[in-house]
Amino acid sequence: MRGVGAPASRSFAKPVRQQARQVPAGPAGQQTIRRQNLGLVMQAVMEDGPSSRASIASTVGLTRSTVSSLVEELLSRGLLSDRGQQASGSVGRPGRLVGLSDRTVGLGLEINVDYLAASVLDLSGGVRFEQFVRHENRGMPIEVVLDKLGDLARTALTAVEQHGLMSVGTAIAVPGLVDAETGTLLTAPNLGWSDTQIGREMARRLGRPNQYLSVQNEANLAAQGELWEGNGRRWGDFVLVSGEIGVGGAVVVEGELLMSGAGMSGELGHLSVDPEGPACPCGSRGCLERIVGQEALLAAAHLDAEVGTSIGLPDGGVQALVERAEAGDPMTVAALERAARVLGQACASVANLVAPNTIVLGGIYAPLFPWLADPFRAEFECRSFVARYSGVAVVQSELGPAAAVRGAASLTLRAVCADPQLVDAVAGSG
Ligand SMILES: [Zn+2]
Question: Which distant-in-sequence residues (6+ apart) come within 8 Å of 323 by Cβ?
Fold first, then answer.
C-alpha cells in the first residue's frame, strides 16, 4: 500500500527551485526534486488548462528540456494527454498542447453505519460512477462488510474501465477514529469496530497492491469534498456539521482541512450536550448524535429508524421526514425544531472556539435544511457572541450525504497529481 500523509493543496506549490537547493545532492535528492517537479507541472496544467511545454516551463520556472522530460513521464503515467497543435498566432513557434487526461479517475469508497458507497470522479470533477447500497454494518462481521465493499468497488471499476477510464487509486471514508498513516480504523463506536486494518484488507480485496490507498475519517473527507467538489471555496473558513447516524464535524481554514491527532479529529457527535442523557457507545452520555443524529431524529418524529435512511432513497426514513415536514405534520416539524435548537447550541460553542465565516449543515441535514435553518440560526446567534459580532453564515451543503465519498475520490486524484510517481507508467498512453 502506498499513500501520502497529507492531502494535496489546490494552491500552486511555488518554491521548487529553492527547495531543490536544500535537498541533499546525489541520486536520492535528484529523485525527490523530480517528484516535486512532476507535481508542479501537474498543478500548472490543472490551473492553466491545456498548455505547451514552453508555457509550462515559463510558469514553473524550469528549463524547456526539463519540462519536456517531465511531460513525457506524465504522458506515460496517463495523467496528461496530447491535445494537438497549439493555434498559430501564439508567441514563438507553435508547440503541441498537453492537458489533463480525460481517462484518469479516482475511486472513493465509504463505509457508514447503515450503507456503503462508491464514487468515481475524473480530473474535471465529473462523476463517472456513483452508487449507494443499503447495508446494516452494525453487528456484522467486519470481513463480510469489507467483502461487500470490495464487490461494490469492483462493480465501480468494471463500469468505468469499460469506458476506457483508468483508476489511479482509492480512498476510503470510515465513521470513526483513523490512523491515516497506517490505514487503521482505531475505533468506530457506532459500528462496534476497533483496530481494523481497513487499508491493508481493502488493498488485498481490490487486488491492486501498488496503487495509492488512503483511509480517513468520513467527516474530514466530507469537508474536503465540499471544498473541492462543492461550494466550499465560496465559504471562507468553514465548519461542516455532517448528520448521519453519527454526527461528524470538520474545520477548514484558508482552504485546508485542520487535521490533528494523525486523523483522529472530526468527532463532533460525541460532544456531550446532556450529561444525564442517553448512554452512547463511545462510553459517554448525552452525546450530540444521541439527540440529533438520524435515529434520534426519526424516533422523535415517530418514524422507523430503518437501515439506509441517510442516503435519501425514495422509501428511506429521511425522505419520509422531508415529506411529512413538507405536509406540515406538527410532530415532525416540532422534532426538527428541537433538533435544530440543540444543534445550534452545540455549533455556537464551536463558533466561539473556531470563529468560522460559515457553518455548513451537511449529510441528512442538507435535505432537512429548510426546516432546520431558522431555529438553528436563532439558537446559534443567541449563544455565540462571536457569531453575533463577526457574522457567521449558516448554509446548506450542496453535496449532502455524497460529500464524503466524493471527497474520497477527489483526495485520490489530488494525491496522485501532487506525486505522479504514485501512478505506474502505462503502455500506450499519451
Ligand atoms: Zn458518544
Answer: none
Q: Give the pLDDT confidence of 141-178 residue by residue, as tens digits.
A: 999 999 999 999 999 999 999 999 999 999 999 998 88
Q: Which helix (H) or strand (E) holds 347?
A: helix 330-354
259 pLDDT tier (thresholds 50, 70, 90): confident
The whole-angstrom distance between residue 136's C-alpha and the CA centroid of its chain comes to 22
Q: Output the CA 318–ligand 1 centroid distance in Å.
A: 22
Tell me which residue of 110, 20, 111, 7 sits closest to 60, measured CA to CA: 20
Q: Is residue 63 within 8 Å of residue 36, measured between CB atoms?
A: no
Sign of CA dihedral 198, 144, 211, 429: negative
- The CA 113 to ligand 1 mean position distance, Å, reads 14
- What is the CA(280)–ligand 1 centre distance, in A? 5
pLDDT over 90, % of the chain: 64
Confidence of residue 335 (pLDDT cuts 50, 70, 90): very high
**d(CA 173, ligand 1 centre) in Å:** 19
Please tell me the predicted confidence (pLDDT) of residue 106. 96
Q: For residue 167, report the distance from its CA to the centre of ligand 1, in Å.
A: 37
Q: What CA–CA distances, in Å, run from 184 to 66, 369, 421? A: 39, 34, 24
* Contacts with 362 (C-beta within 8 Å, 6 or more apart), sequence order: 222, 226, 240, 241, 242, 243, 397, 399, 400, 401, 403
Quote the cell numbers at residue 14.
Answer: 511555488
pLDDT, averaged across the chain: 86
Residue ranges and CATH numbers for the domains of the chain are: 16-100 (1.10.10.10), 104-222+405-422 (3.30.420.40), 231-398 (3.30.420.40)
pLDDT tens for 32-83 read: 899 999 999 999 999 999 999 999 999 999 999 999 999 999 999 999 999 8
Burial classification of residue 91, based on how many CB atoms lie within 10 Å of its CB (0-12 exposed, 13-18 middle, 19 or more buried)? exposed
3-state secondary structure of 149: helix
Residue percentage of the chain with pLDDT more than 70: 87
Strand order in the sheet with 96-100: 51-52, 96-100, 80-85
| CA 123/CA 346 separation, integer angstroms | 37
